[in-house]
Amino acid sequence: MLERFAKVEGLGNDFLLLDRRDASPAVLDALVARLRAAAPALCDRRLGVGGDGILVVGPPRTAEAAATMIVVNHDGSRPEMCGNGLRCVALAVAGAVHQLVIDTDAGPKPCAVREFHPGTCPSGQVAIDMGPPDLLGPRRVGGRAFAAVSMGNPHAIAFVRDEDPEALARGDGPAVERDPQFPDRTNVEFARLEADGSITLWVWERGCGITSACGTGACATLAAAIAEGLAPHARDVVVRLPGGPLMLRQDRAGGSITMTGPARVAFVGEVEVPAASSTA
Ligand SMILES: N[C@@H](CCC[C@H](N)C(=O)O)C(=O)O
Protein backbone atom coordinates (compact mmCIF):
# COMPACT_ATOMS: atom_id res chain seq x y z
CA MET A 1 0.00 0.00 0.00
CA LEU A 2 1.43 3.41 -1.00
CA GLU A 3 1.63 6.02 1.77
CA ARG A 4 2.34 9.70 1.19
CA PHE A 5 5.11 11.04 3.41
CA ALA A 6 7.25 14.13 4.01
CA LYS A 7 10.91 13.69 4.81
CA VAL A 8 11.54 16.08 7.73
CA GLU A 9 14.58 16.98 9.77
CA GLY A 10 15.65 19.01 12.77
CA LEU A 11 19.43 19.48 13.01
CA GLY A 12 19.82 16.45 10.77
CA ASN A 13 17.77 14.16 13.05
CA ASP A 14 15.53 12.93 10.23
CA PHE A 15 12.19 11.20 9.90
CA LEU A 16 9.51 10.06 7.51
CA LEU A 17 6.38 12.00 8.54
CA LEU A 18 2.95 10.59 7.68
CA ASP A 19 0.10 13.04 8.25
CA ARG A 20 -2.99 10.95 9.05
CA ARG A 21 -5.06 13.46 11.02
CA ASP A 22 -8.02 12.10 9.02
CA ALA A 23 -7.67 8.53 10.36
CA SER A 24 -9.98 6.77 12.83
CA PRO A 25 -8.35 5.23 15.95
CA ALA A 26 -8.54 1.73 14.41
CA VAL A 27 -6.98 2.82 11.10
CA LEU A 28 -4.25 4.74 12.96
CA ASP A 29 -3.41 1.74 15.20
CA ALA A 30 -3.18 -0.55 12.17
CA LEU A 31 -0.94 1.95 10.33
CA VAL A 32 1.39 2.30 13.34
CA ALA A 33 1.63 -1.51 13.60
CA ARG A 34 2.56 -1.74 9.90
CA LEU A 35 5.09 1.08 10.23
CA ARG A 36 6.72 -0.51 13.30
CA ALA A 37 7.22 -3.74 11.38
CA ALA A 38 8.50 -1.91 8.29
CA ALA A 39 10.61 0.73 10.10
CA PRO A 40 14.06 -0.93 9.72
CA ALA A 41 13.51 -1.24 5.93
CA LEU A 42 11.91 2.20 5.44
CA CYS A 43 14.63 3.90 7.54
CA ASP A 44 17.49 2.04 5.83
CA ARG A 45 19.70 4.69 4.22
CA ARG A 46 20.65 2.54 1.21
CA LEU A 47 17.59 0.38 0.62
CA GLY A 48 14.78 2.60 1.91
CA VAL A 49 13.87 6.30 2.23
CA GLY A 50 16.36 6.61 5.08
CA GLY A 51 15.79 8.18 8.49
CA ASP A 52 16.30 7.91 12.22
CA GLY A 53 12.64 7.09 12.65
CA ILE A 54 9.02 7.68 11.63
CA LEU A 55 6.54 10.29 12.87
CA VAL A 56 2.84 9.57 12.53
CA VAL A 57 0.58 12.62 12.91
CA GLY A 58 -2.85 11.60 14.13
CA PRO A 59 -6.00 13.46 15.23
CA PRO A 60 -5.75 15.28 18.60
CA ARG A 61 -6.45 13.36 21.83
CA THR A 62 -7.23 16.44 23.93
CA ALA A 63 -9.55 19.42 23.33
CA GLU A 64 -6.81 22.06 23.11
CA ALA A 65 -4.50 20.13 20.76
CA ALA A 66 -4.21 20.36 16.96
CA ALA A 67 -2.78 16.86 16.42
CA THR A 68 -1.05 13.89 18.05
CA MET A 69 2.54 12.78 17.41
CA ILE A 70 3.33 9.05 17.49
CA VAL A 71 7.03 8.16 17.15
CA VAL A 72 8.55 4.96 15.79
CA ASN A 73 12.31 4.43 16.15
CA HIS A 74 14.54 3.05 13.37
CA ASP A 75 14.36 -0.41 14.98
CA GLY A 76 10.53 -0.35 15.19
CA SER A 77 10.33 0.40 18.93
CA ARG A 78 7.87 3.10 20.02
CA PRO A 79 9.35 5.84 22.24
CA GLU A 80 7.23 8.17 24.34
CA MET A 81 8.70 11.44 23.05
CA CYS A 82 10.99 13.01 20.47
CA GLY A 83 12.06 16.66 20.70
CA ASN A 84 13.40 17.16 17.17
CA GLY A 85 10.49 15.18 15.75
CA LEU A 86 8.00 17.36 17.62
CA ARG A 87 9.48 20.53 16.11
CA CYS A 88 8.99 18.94 12.68
CA VAL A 89 5.39 17.93 13.47
CA ALA A 90 4.58 21.44 14.76
CA LEU A 91 6.02 22.92 11.54
CA ALA A 92 4.06 20.50 9.33
CA VAL A 93 0.77 21.08 11.18
CA ALA A 94 1.15 24.82 11.80
CA GLY A 95 0.00 26.40 8.52
CA ALA A 96 -1.14 29.91 9.38
CA VAL A 97 -1.51 29.06 13.10
CA HIS A 98 1.83 29.56 14.79
CA GLN A 99 0.90 28.71 18.40
CA LEU A 100 -0.37 25.17 18.81
CA VAL A 101 -0.47 22.21 21.17
CA ILE A 102 0.56 18.73 20.01
CA ASP A 103 -0.42 15.65 22.03
CA THR A 104 2.30 13.04 22.56
CA ASP A 105 2.60 9.77 24.51
CA ALA A 106 4.32 11.98 27.15
CA GLY A 107 1.41 14.46 27.34
CA PRO A 108 0.38 17.63 25.49
CA LYS A 109 3.24 19.98 24.45
CA PRO A 110 2.72 23.69 23.60
CA CYS A 111 4.69 24.72 20.49
CA ALA A 112 5.38 28.12 18.88
CA VAL A 113 6.48 28.28 15.23
CA ARG A 114 8.63 31.31 14.32
CA GLU A 115 10.39 32.49 11.17
CA PHE A 116 7.97 30.31 9.19
CA HIS A 117 8.79 29.89 5.48
CA PRO A 118 5.70 28.31 3.86
CA GLY A 119 5.58 26.16 0.71
CA THR A 120 5.67 22.49 -0.27
CA CYS A 121 8.82 22.21 1.85
CA PRO A 122 8.30 24.67 4.74
CA SER A 123 10.99 25.50 7.28
CA GLY A 124 11.16 27.52 10.47
CA GLN A 125 12.25 27.79 14.05
CA VAL A 126 10.09 26.08 16.66
CA ALA A 127 10.05 26.67 20.43
CA ILE A 128 8.52 23.91 22.55
CA ASP A 129 7.57 23.75 26.20
CA MET A 130 9.04 20.27 26.77
CA GLY A 131 7.66 19.98 30.32
CA PRO A 132 9.61 19.35 33.52
CA PRO A 133 12.42 16.79 33.65
CA ASP A 134 12.17 13.90 36.09
CA LEU A 135 15.51 13.44 37.89
CA LEU A 136 15.74 9.74 38.70
CA GLY A 137 19.12 9.72 40.46
CA PRO A 138 22.58 8.34 39.73
CA ARG A 139 23.40 4.99 38.08
CA ARG A 140 26.85 3.39 37.75
CA VAL A 141 27.57 1.56 34.52
CA GLY A 142 31.01 0.14 33.70
CA GLY A 143 32.63 2.24 36.45
CA ARG A 144 31.17 5.52 35.15
CA ALA A 145 28.49 7.66 36.84
CA PHE A 146 25.38 8.49 34.79
CA ALA A 147 22.47 10.72 35.79
CA ALA A 148 19.16 9.05 34.92
CA VAL A 149 16.63 11.64 33.70
CA SER A 150 13.23 11.19 32.07
CA MET A 151 11.86 13.71 29.57
CA GLY A 152 8.95 11.31 29.05
CA ASN A 153 11.56 9.02 27.49
CA PRO A 154 14.62 7.71 29.38
CA HIS A 155 18.13 9.21 29.30
CA ALA A 156 21.46 8.39 30.99
CA ILE A 157 23.91 11.29 31.00
CA ALA A 158 27.64 11.26 31.77
CA PHE A 159 29.72 14.46 31.95
CA VAL A 160 33.30 14.16 30.72
CA ARG A 161 36.29 16.53 30.79
CA ASP A 162 39.33 15.30 28.86
CA GLU A 163 37.65 12.40 27.04
CA ASP A 164 36.08 12.53 23.56
CA PRO A 165 32.25 12.43 23.87
CA GLU A 166 31.85 11.13 20.31
CA ALA A 167 34.20 8.17 20.87
CA LEU A 168 32.45 7.37 24.16
CA ALA A 169 28.96 7.55 22.63
CA ARG A 170 29.99 5.26 19.77
CA GLY A 171 32.00 2.90 21.97
CA ASP A 172 30.01 2.67 25.21
CA GLY A 173 26.53 3.74 24.00
CA PRO A 174 25.32 0.28 22.92
CA ALA A 175 26.19 -1.41 26.25
CA VAL A 176 24.74 1.40 28.39
CA GLU A 177 21.54 1.41 26.29
CA ARG A 178 20.96 -2.24 27.24
CA ASP A 179 22.29 -2.22 30.82
CA PRO A 180 19.82 -4.11 33.09
CA GLN A 181 19.45 -0.99 35.29
CA PHE A 182 17.39 0.44 32.39
CA PRO A 183 14.62 -2.14 31.89
CA ASP A 184 13.13 -0.14 28.97
CA ARG A 185 16.63 0.50 27.55
CA THR A 186 17.83 4.11 27.53
CA ASN A 187 19.17 6.91 25.36
CA VAL A 188 22.81 7.56 26.30
CA GLU A 189 24.43 11.02 26.46
CA PHE A 190 28.08 12.02 26.79
CA ALA A 191 28.38 15.74 27.51
CA ARG A 192 31.25 18.18 27.99
CA LEU A 193 30.89 21.62 29.55
CA GLU A 194 32.74 24.26 27.51
CA ALA A 195 34.49 27.40 28.80
CA ASP A 196 31.81 29.66 27.21
CA GLY A 197 29.03 27.92 29.19
CA SER A 198 27.75 25.87 26.25
CA ILE A 199 27.51 22.09 26.37
CA THR A 200 28.92 19.77 23.69
CA LEU A 201 26.74 16.67 23.40
CA TRP A 202 26.85 13.34 21.59
CA VAL A 203 23.90 10.97 21.88
CA TRP A 204 23.59 7.24 21.34
CA GLU A 205 19.84 6.95 20.84
CA ARG A 206 17.78 4.01 22.00
CA GLY A 207 16.54 2.14 18.95
CA CYS A 208 18.61 4.25 16.49
CA GLY A 209 22.30 4.53 17.47
CA ILE A 210 24.27 7.73 16.93
CA THR A 211 22.12 10.58 15.61
CA SER A 212 23.12 14.10 14.64
CA ALA A 213 20.88 15.58 17.35
CA CYS A 214 18.46 14.59 20.10
CA GLY A 215 16.10 17.21 21.54
CA THR A 216 14.96 15.25 24.58
CA GLY A 217 18.61 14.26 25.17
CA ALA A 218 19.65 17.91 25.15
CA CYS A 219 16.88 18.79 27.66
CA ALA A 220 17.77 15.85 29.92
CA THR A 221 21.43 16.90 29.79
CA LEU A 222 20.59 20.50 30.76
CA ALA A 223 18.50 19.17 33.68
CA ALA A 224 21.39 16.98 34.86
CA ALA A 225 23.87 19.84 34.44
CA ILE A 226 21.68 22.21 36.50
CA ALA A 227 21.20 19.53 39.18
CA GLU A 228 24.98 19.05 39.40
CA GLY A 229 25.61 22.82 39.57
CA LEU A 230 27.25 22.88 36.10
CA ALA A 231 24.69 25.15 34.37
CA PRO A 232 22.46 28.04 35.52
CA HIS A 233 18.70 28.44 35.86
CA ALA A 234 16.91 31.26 34.01
CA ARG A 235 19.57 31.73 31.36
CA ASP A 236 19.70 30.45 27.79
CA VAL A 237 22.12 27.53 27.47
CA VAL A 238 23.40 26.46 24.06
CA VAL A 239 23.70 22.69 23.61
CA ARG A 240 26.01 21.94 20.67
CA LEU A 241 25.12 18.71 18.89
CA PRO A 242 26.85 17.28 15.79
CA GLY A 243 23.99 18.65 13.64
CA GLY A 244 24.04 22.13 15.19
CA PRO A 245 22.98 24.08 18.30
CA LEU A 246 19.77 23.94 20.32
CA MET A 247 18.81 26.79 22.66
CA LEU A 248 17.49 25.61 26.04
CA ARG A 249 16.25 27.26 29.19
CA GLN A 250 14.83 26.21 32.55
CA ASP A 251 13.60 29.16 34.59
CA ARG A 252 13.28 27.45 37.99
CA ALA A 253 14.21 24.17 39.69
CA GLY A 254 11.70 21.48 38.76
CA GLY A 255 10.14 23.68 36.06
CA SER A 256 9.59 23.15 32.36
CA ILE A 257 12.43 23.27 29.87
CA THR A 258 11.95 25.34 26.72
CA MET A 259 13.76 24.09 23.62
CA THR A 260 14.18 26.22 20.48
CA GLY A 261 15.64 25.01 17.21
CA PRO A 262 15.09 24.53 13.48
CA ALA A 263 12.71 22.23 11.60
CA ARG A 264 12.40 21.65 7.86
CA VAL A 265 10.58 19.56 5.28
CA ALA A 266 13.32 18.27 2.94
CA PHE A 267 11.12 16.56 0.32
CA VAL A 268 7.81 14.75 -0.11
CA GLY A 269 7.09 11.41 -1.74
CA GLU A 270 5.20 8.13 -1.65
CA VAL A 271 6.46 4.82 -0.34
CA GLU A 272 5.09 1.31 -0.15
CA VAL A 273 4.39 0.17 3.42
CA PRO A 274 3.78 -3.57 3.39
CA ALA A 275 1.17 -5.29 5.56
CA ALA A 276 2.61 -6.02 9.01
CA SER A 277 2.55 -9.81 8.52
CA SER A 278 4.65 -9.68 5.32
CA THR A 279 7.55 -7.60 6.75
CA ALA A 280 8.97 -10.09 9.27
N1 LIG B 1 15.71 12.03 18.53
C1 LIG B 1 14.69 12.22 19.48
C2 LIG B 1 14.42 11.08 20.44
C3 LIG B 1 13.78 9.90 19.70
C4 LIG B 1 13.35 8.78 20.63
C5 LIG B 1 14.50 8.03 21.26
N2 LIG B 1 15.29 7.32 20.30
C6 LIG B 1 13.94 7.06 22.32
O1 LIG B 1 13.88 5.85 22.07
O2 LIG B 1 13.57 7.52 23.41
C7 LIG B 1 14.69 13.58 20.12
O3 LIG B 1 15.02 14.55 19.39
O4 LIG B 1 14.30 13.74 21.27
Can you characterise this structure?
This protein is α+β, with helices and mostly antiparallel strands. The chain folds into 2 domains: 2-125 and 263-275, Diaminopimelate Epimerase, Chain A, domain 1 (Roll); 134-255, Roll (Diaminopimelate Epimerase, Chain A, domain 1). The protein is 20% helix and 42% strand. The protein is built from 4 helices and 16 strands. It has helices spanning 25-42, 83-94, 165-177, 215-227; strands spanning 2-10, 13-19, 53-58, 67-73, 99-104, 107-117, 123-129, 134-141, 144-150, 154-159, 187-193, 199-205, 209-210, 237-241, 244-250, 257-272. It has an 8-stranded mixed barrel with strand order 1-2-3-4-5-6-7-16. Strand 9 and strand 10 form a beta hairpin. It is globular, with a radius of gyration of 18 Å. The protein starts with a strand and ends in an 8-residue tail after the last strand. The structure holds the ligand N[C@@H](CCC[C@H](N)C(=O)O)C(=O)O. Ligand LBFN2T5F is lined by residues 13, 71, 73, 79, 82-85, 153, 187, 205-208, 211, 214-217. InterPro entries: DAP_epimerase_AS (IPR018510), DAP_epimerase_DapF (IPR001653).
